[in-house]
Amino acid sequence: MQRIIKDDQVVDETWHLLSKDATLDGLSNCDDLLVPLALWLDHAHALKARDGGLGVWLDSDEEVELIANDLQHFQVIALNFPVFSDGRHYSSARLLRDRYGFKGEIRAIGDVLRDQLFFMKRCGFDAFAVREDRDPYEALESLKDFSEVYQPATDQPLPLFRRRQAQG
């Protein structure tokens, strides 16, 4: 069983990530599913009628605006990083948290490496499925790489100088 980082700890994965070519045939009614965007767009009504948890995953070329009106149906939104160097979903996480007010889990999937986690968390990610060939416990330590941040972001909306002013 894969282990993921969620809420600053390593936990067992409980969600089933469906592939891009998945169909509704043979899906369990009670499993927690992460469905690809295309399956959601084609079968939203049937997926909402299921008993299990529902999440959606977006590839790096799919925009969060496509699900903006449906966010209340998802417990998890997974954003796929097909390669380490594709950073488009950093902006997607910021949009989900800051513009659309999504309070559920935002998970990074795909080519997710230790070096990205601290910055992903600043953008609003709270769960990370690091590559299977990497140690999630070692990756978890990257969330402690920096003790202070200067710039405002989703995880700390005030810049350091404003926080210091407020302290007196």
Fold and architecture overview:
- With 168 residues, the protein is of the alpha/beta class.
- The chain has a single domain, classed as Alpha-Beta Barrel (TIM Barrel).
- Helix content is 28%, strand content 20%.
- The chain has helices spanning 37-48, 88-99, 114-123, 136-140, 160-167, and strands at residues 3-6, 9-12, 16-17, 33-36, 54-58, 76-81, 105-110, 127-128.
- Helix 1 links the parallel strand 4 and strand 5 (54-58).
- The longest helix has 12 residues, at 37-48.
- This is Oxidoreductase probably involved in sulfite reduction.
- It comes from marine sediment metagenome.
- Pfam families: DUF934.
Helix content: 25-40%
Order of the strands making up the biggest sheet: 2-1-8-7-6-5-4-3
Distance between the termini: 49 Å
Overall pLDDT level: 94
What are the main properties of this structure?
168 residues; alpha/beta; TIM Barrel; Oxidoreductase probably involved in sulfite reduction
Provide the fold topology:
Blueprint: E1 3-6, E2 9-12, E3 16-17, E4 33-36, H1 37-48, E5 54-58, E6 76-81, H2 88-99, E7 105-110, H3 114-123, E8 127-128, H4 136-140, H5 160-167
Parallel strand pairs: 3-4, 4-5, 5-6, 6-7, 7-8
Antiparallel strand pairs: 1-2, 1-8
Quick structural summary:
InterPro entries: UCP030820. This protein has 5 helices and 8 strands; from the N terminus they run ββββαββαβαβαα.
